[in-house]
Every structure is written in structure tokens, then in C-alpha cells.
Input
Amino acid sequence: MKITFLGGGNMATALIGGMLERGFAVAGLQVVELGEAARDALAQRFGVRAVESFDDAALACDVLVLAVKPQQMKAALAPIAGRLCGQLVISIAAGLRLADLGRWLGAPGAPHARLVRCMPNTPALIGAGVTGLYADPSVDAAGRETAGRILGAVGSTVWADDEAQMDAVTAISGSGPAYVFHFIEALESAGRSLGFDEAGARRLAIDTVLGAARLAAGSEDAPAVLRQKVTSKGGTTEAALASLAAAGWHDELVAAVQAAEARGRELGAELGKD
Output
């Protein structure tokens, strides 16, 4: 299988590294990247072919992975508009809708159809991400399996039933690491207010979140049940959770995710303008 990446930034680098670890052949991978330093780094680190612009070899691929910034996508696709021959195209650009990508990739009146839209998150950079995917109905089972294998190289995958759900994926898991980091910040601040130095407070906060996430991931119990198991009646955890409930923490977090989803829909419309 021949796979070409358009863009050689951090996420493309993480994907290439993960794919090679999982048995993808280096001879089948190539990157189109404008930056000379990035091209040299990719070639030196992975041994992949890296070129400045699309040539016949780069276009002669089975899969094209779009890994440039959303704001740069339309211009980046202009040189290959109408030149694809049925390749599976996988986009990891946040917010860009399939209809817009298909229009920019295709010839006038004939948009490209074999498209998969993906939303990885930043933990993918260490192989611990989660990616939401949605495939155009024209993508067959083999195409979906290929997309799942590629994005599965940097973590777990979840398929959306409808493209509109991709804005929810962005709001939950795409933006989600920032919510977790913010929680860690708050827990660290609490630790410092209670006498720990920065290093100690940060270690307590990070390892608590890390351990709780691993416990939840490996348990058959729902998070609500795990929370209840930690909460003794009249105890310290109950006092803390009561304070959070009084502040409306749960509902505010749900509202925050809904605000992110709404903004995602707005950005999709803005980014897709011709």
C-alpha cells in the first residue's frame, strides 16, 4: 500500500512513527512538505521519501492523508485538484467538512468522494490518543478498515454515524485534553494552597488523574460507580463533591462542551468558504 502525507508536522510525524512500529512498510510512505527542515527531519528519522511538492510518484498513491492546517488546506489542495484517480483521502484537519474537501479536490462539477474525516487529539503525539472518524458513504469496508489502521497507529478509534457528530468529537476528545489539563492545574493549585511545593503538588495531581483514568479504563464499572466506591458517607470525598455540586461543576462542564461543539460548527462553515 502506498500512502502519501500532505504535510509533515507533528501529527503526521506521530502517525508515521506509529505506523512504522505497527508494520507499515517505509518504502510505501512519502510526505509532501514545503519546509526543507521538516523534510530533512522526516527523511533522517524515518527514512521516508519527502518532497517539496506533488510529483508523479507522490500522486501515485493508494491513500492520501491530509495533514496541513485547516486554514491552509484549500491552497494546499489547489495543485492537485482534479488529478486524483479514486484514491482514499483521509483528512485529519479539524473542522473541515467532507463536502468542502471533496469540492477542493475534485474537478468542477465532479467532487472527489472517497473521503474520511478524522479528529485525533494531542495525546496521539505519544501514541495515547483517541480519534473520531466519519467516512463518506462511498467508502467501502476496506477503505474504512484502512483508515482505522492508520489512525489506530496513534491510539484508539471511534466511528461516528453522522458527519455532524464530528463537531461533538472535536468538543469532547479533541478539546478534551485541555479540560483535563485545566483540572490538573486546579488540583495542583489546591495542593500548593495546602502546603506542598510546586513539584509535589504537580506530582500528586498528575498521578491522581493518570491512575484514575487507568482504573476507569480497566474497570467494568461505570465512572459513576467508581466515584461512589471512593465516596464514604460523611467523609472527605463527599465533602469535596458536595462543594463541586454546589458550584454547578458538572452542568458547567457539560455546557462548556456544548459551547465547543457549537463553535466547531461555526468554524466548519467559515473554513469551507470559497
User: Anything to note?
Assistant: The chain has two domains: 3-166, 176-265. The first helix runs from residue 10 to 21. The mean pLDDT is 96. The two ends are 33 Å apart (CA to CA).
